[in-house]
Specification:
By secondary structure, the chain is an alpha/beta fold. The protein is built from 27 helices and 20 strands. The strands form three sheets. An eight-stranded mixed β-sheet has the order 11-10-9-8-7-6-19-20. It has a seven-stranded mixed β-sheet with strand order 12-13-14-15-16-17-18. Strands 1-2-3-5-4 form a five-stranded mixed beta barrel.
Length: 755
């Protein structure tokens, strides 16, 4: 009976997952018909098999219907980039960014304009606290459809917006505060956050205290986040499922202890049931502090279902409770399966239950604790390797001391500090976390191996391997789990041969970043803006298994070309920098290594591929940073790549005088602006592919229509990174081009057209 129950739930969840993997949403009725047909057939023969198929089709249909509804709630193209007046409510806690304030807004619908139910707005400049959660405002805004950058190994922001139910993004041009408030929950959270800020005005970890109490992670510095990620404890720096569960357990234990000592209460109502009620209420209140965010809802569902099962006089197995919680979560939120946190959470708990039924719980408590940490780490390792390309081996050690300190000591202390009028409890919690972070910094100094980023298909044998490894000791099949996990550590990338090169034009928005690889060498031309360091460059380098750069070219002193250089250099060893930056540039304080000025005529040979700097000319007197930009040509003797950065028509003329020649692949100068791509330059370069590295609906209007037409008239194929995502050119005897969006289609991806 239990096996059938688990198989049916598995079938339903697999159906939901299959829908979320579709490149486009199918019609609703075919899968519904399949579900009904399989259910009818199950009444005749092969009952379990047909019921599993019916469950699969039902899960597919349910997720399909919900996806159609959510996609219909997105901004219509006709409203994009128009000035629109909207009135509504600020929900959730506004976040202070480098440029202003970002917040979620629920607009009031009008008969004239149908807007998405939830919009993310950015208000540039001004005071960071001018808007507050729960306030009503009237805004003049410009809205955009949901659109994110698409790159190898990068976070899929479009998927994240889908999961959150956000249907548009936009910028505020002006706003007026209106009378009347709503969203009382978010107002309470905002007042609690303000209380923490006042109680800990200069404390380095006040952002962590805010995250642990009201679920707002916006005040945590990037440097701290990087350390938490390196030690594998990011799951602790929030109102996480672990914290909710532990607090519910503490509340249940205290309630049971008190209840048993009051005879007239214990005589009328069982202490065990009172403890269950107290635990669920505590979990619900803590989830409210987090604004009922999706991850906390999952934990609440699981605890509520577990409590309901324990309430029954007939006990249920742990696997049945776990599967029921998983099913309810997916039914309520079929988009949860797109979240890595969802799988890390449920699979880690499932692994602990599996291991607990087999081998945990025996022997000394310290051995049980170590075994528990090992089981959780083993269960999460395949997902961390496939998704992030990294596995912090110090994670078990870091979690071994961080989990009890943060969850059992710091979090309850910080929550109690919200009621402390003096603020000593909050200060004590903050100082205790400072001690924890000191130990984390020590953990980051421990050496660890680097791993390749395996393919997603390796998850299937790895999951089976983890189950085998968590079996009781002594079973002969247990060690076969190691063999099943071996594909995780194999190199899945295509190797280049001498005379071949791969050029990856990354989607960095309005900027430029190009990775050029040969058989044994790697070069990066520009880095894009500062946020691209953590969001795009480092994930892309990990996915391409690039652990060091032989050369980094920083073309000129514009932030859209070199903004992410410093975070990149902190993480990726770089042998040489070629540049046209001033000697006093702040970057040189961060990088004391080898550097050379770009100069026309410099050339080198890597793996039978020639790299040549064509510009700047030492005799040329430049009038701007753009005019001094480095220009690189890559040539394998058959096909040529030209990267001219932001040079203008005067520099183009000088290159033509020097014998520029034809280029098969051209990064269009200055993102396709009118100041570049003169007719003589286009005619002489005559590229087969003209690439525009531009941001979606960028404020400069790049690329200009006349420039696009000019390259089209020269028989070039125009490709834009805002439409195609990252572009990968494999160059050998022939040129093979891959668009990242086309190669990895999703139904929620931006509706862009490749021209």
């Amino acid at each position: 009976m239990l096996t059938s129950y688990l198989l049916l739930i598995t079938g339903f969840i697999c159906g939901v997952c299959f829908l979320q993997s579709q490149p486009a949403l199918p019609l609703l009725w075919p899968a519904i018909c399949v579900s009904l047909f399989c259910f009818i057939l199950s009444q005749w023969r092969f009952k379990l098999a047909f019921l599993i198929l019916a469950a699969f089709a039902t899960g597919f249909s349910w997720a399909n219907w919900r996806a159609h509804i959510r996609m219909a709630d997105r901004l219509t193209p006709a409203l994009e980039q128009r000035l629109i007046e909207i009135t509504g409510l600020i929900t959730d806690l506004p976040q202070t960014t480098r440029f202003g304030t970002r917040f979620l807004f629920i607009p009031e619908q009008t008969p004239q304009t149908r807007l998405p139910g939830k919009i993310q707005l950015q208000w540039y400049g001004g005071q960071p606290d001018r808007v507050k959660a729960g306030e009503r405002w009237h805004f003049l805004v410009k809205l955009k459809q949901i659109h994110g950058q698409s790159n190898p190994g990068s976070f899929d922001s479009e998927s994240w917006f889908l999961q959150q139910g956000t249907g548009a993004t936009g910028t505020v041009k002006s706003g007026e505060r209106l009378s009347g408030d709503g969203a009382w929950l978010h107002q309470i959270r905002a007042s609690l956050r303000l209380r923490i800020l006042k109680a800990l005005p200069d404390a380095p970890y006040r952002g962590v205290m805010i995250a642990l109490t009201v679920g707002d992670q916006g005040a945590i510095p990037q440097e701290q986040w990087q350390r938490f990620a390196a030690t594998g404890i990011t799951h602790l720096i929030s109102i996480s499922g672990l914290h909710i569960t532990l607090l519910a357990a503490i509340a249940a234990a205290i309630s049971s202890w008190i209840w048993r000592r009051i005879p007239w209460l214990a005589a009328r109502f069982a202490a065990q049931r009172a403890a269950l009620i107290a635990g669920v209420i505590t979990a619900f209140c803590y989830c409210l502090l987090a604004g009922m965010a999706v991850p906390t809802q999952r934990t609440l569902f699981m605890l509520a279902i577990a409590a309901a099962c324990l309430w029954r006089t007939q006990p249920s197995s742990n696997s049945a409770i776990w599967a029921a919680a998983l099913l309810v979560t997916v039914i309520i939120d079929p988009f949860a399966v797109l979240s890595i946190g969802f799988w890390l959470s449920y699979l880690s708990v499932g692994a602990l239950l599996w291991a607990g039924s087999n081998q945990l719980g025996e022997g000394a408590k310290w051995k049980t604790w170590i075994s528990t940490q090992a089981a959780a780490t083993l269960a999460s390792a395949p997902i961390l390797l496939v998704v992030f390309g990294q596995l912090p081996l110090v994670s078990p050690l870091a979690n071994a001391f961080a989990i009890p300190i943060v969850s059992i000591l710091i979090t309850p202390l910080a929550l109690a500090g919200l009621l402390d009028p003096v603020g000593y409890l909050l200060l004590g919690a903050e100082r205790l976390f400072a001690l924890t972070d000191y130990l984390l910094q020590w953990c980051t100094t421990m050496p660890g191996p680097a791993f390749n980023m395996p393919g997603a298909l390796t998850l299937v044998p790895a999951a089976f391997g983890v189950m085998l490894l968590l079996l009781p000791r002594g079973l002969p099949a247990r060690h076969l789990g190691v063999i099943c996990c071996l594909p995780l550590f194999t190199n899945s990338s295509d190797s280049l041969q001498p005379g071949q090169y791969r050029a990856s034009v990354l989607d960095v928005g309005q900027g430029l970043a190009v990775i050029v690889q040969t058989a044994q060498h790697q070069l990066l031309f520009d880095t894009g803006q500062l946020p691209n360091g953590e969001r795009v460059l480092l994930p892309a380098l990990r996915s391409m298994q690039i652990r060091q750069l032989d050369a980094l070219i920083l073309s000129h002193n514009d932030q859209d070309h070199i903004g992410a250089a410093i975070p990149l250099l902190h993480k990726v060893p770089t042998k040489t920098i070629w540049h046209s930056l001033p000697d006093q540039h702040p970057l040189w304080l961060e990088y004391p290594g080898s550097r050379q000025n770009c100069q026309a005529g410099k050339t080198w040979l890597w793996d039978k591929v020639r790299f040549t700097l064509l510009w700047p000319d030492a005799r040329f007197i430049a009038s701007s940073d753009n005019a001094m930009g480095c220009v690189l040509r890559v040539d394998n003797g058959r096909h040529t790549l030209l990267i001219p950065a932001d040079i203008g028509i005067h520099e183009e003329a000088r290159l033509i005088e020097q014998g520029l020649g034809k280029s098969d692949i051209l990064l269009v100068p200055h993102h396709g602006s009118k100041s570049s791509s003169s007719l003589p330059f286009v005619s002489q370069s005559a590229p087969q592919y003209a690439i525009y590295s531009v941001g979606y609906l960028n404020r400069f209007g790049h690329p200009k229509a006349e420039i696009v037409a000019r390259y089209r008239d020269s028989q070039s194929q125009n490709l834009r990174t805002d439409q195609t995502g990252a572009l990968i050119f494999d160059v050998g005897q022939e040129i093979k081009v891959t668009s990242w969006r086309q190669a990895h289609p999703h139904y929620w991806s931006a509706n862009t057209i490749v021209r």
